[in-house]
Amino acid sequence: MQILIYGIGGVGGYFGGMIANAGYDVSMIGRGKHLEAIQQNGLFIESIKGDFKVVPKIATDDLKNVSSPDLVILGVKSWQLKDAATALKAIIKEDTIVLPLQNGAGNVEQLLQVLPKKNVIAGLCRIVSFIESPGKIKHASFEPEIIFGEIDNSQSKRIHSVKEIFDRSGIQNTIPEEIELEVWKKFLFIVTISGIGGLTRVPIGKIRESDYLFDLMQKTAREIVEVANAKKIPLTLEHVKRVFETIANQPFQTTASTQRDLMDGRPSELENFNGFIVQEGARLGIPTPVNKFIYECLLPMEQKALNL
């Protein structure tokens, strides 16, 4: 099977590395000094589960150098999905499977604006990993997991063929009964912590110490649930409770990737996180004042990063 990892940062680099390490035919799309280092010396994974190094079949920034893949794993940011999908149109086959792993609740919808529905499945991942230096991915915490499935939750043959790849690669994975609900559960967690982290510029431990900020996170989460329910997604306050149990157990110095992007002046997933809730709330008639406050306060930084 020809497997393409499109985006080889913390997520794509780790999971792509695991799949390549299992002996699969893996090509990687990347850019900049990180790509150059991989082309010269391979990809090094430093992981709490054990370190290893792989040499992908191809590491390039040009899809013309890549064979038509059977499986594409998208490791780019959610705001890059449409551009990635547009580029992939030139090389995907009738039966190519495209799996997004981004944080965000509207990723499948973005892909379906560009790619045929028959090519797209849904997914998310749980991992804390990042590019530590060019050519090196550091997996710092969490048991890495990929959760994925058909958009209609059917138990298709191709879904189980993807599961077999993950199983053989030593990647914990789950095919849930309701993939959309799982996507929103992850979205609930990441949006609840990301925006406030971007505003305060402090780790989760400091945010937890403030009653005011903790309450603000609670309100952020409840607005997300209300928007989800209006979209017929069965998120509940029980899911909010579990999110805050996870937040309570995060290491003191934990920061979210979107928070780090905002702090470093890079384009972030703000538009796809708090911005998405504000947009969907307005469309559905659901008030989202806390998410709107966070979004509008962070928007000037986002526009600066995007040179708007």
UniProtKB/TrEMBL annotation:
GO MF annotations in UniProt: 2-dehydropantoate 2-reductase activity
Alphabetic keyword roster: NADP, Oxidoreductase, Pantothenate biosynthesis
Methyltransferase is among the record's keywords: no
GO terms of biological process kind: pantothenate biosynthetic process
Metabolic or biological pathway, per its Swiss-Prot or TrEMBL entry: Cofactor biosynthesis; (R)-pantothenate biosynthesis; (R)-pantoate from 3-methyl-2-oxobutanoate: step 2/2
Keyword Transcription regulation among record annotations: no
One Gene Ontology cellular component: cytoplasm
Pfam families in the record: ApbA (PF02558), ApbA_C (PF08546)
EC number: 1.1.1.169
UniProt superkingdom: Bacteria
Entry coiled-coil feature ranges: none
Catalytic activity: (R)-pantoate + NADP(+) = 2-dehydropantoate + NADPH + H(+)
Domain (Ketopantoate reductase N-terminal): residue spans on this chain: 3-152
Domain Ketopantoate reductase C-terminal residue range list: 179-299
UniProt function note: Catalyzes the NADPH-dependent reduction of ketopantoate into pantoic acid.
Family: Belongs to the ketopantoate reductase family.
Name of the protein in question: 2-dehydropantoate 2-reductase
Protein source organism: Gillisia limnaea (strain DSM 15749 / LMG 21470 / R-8282)
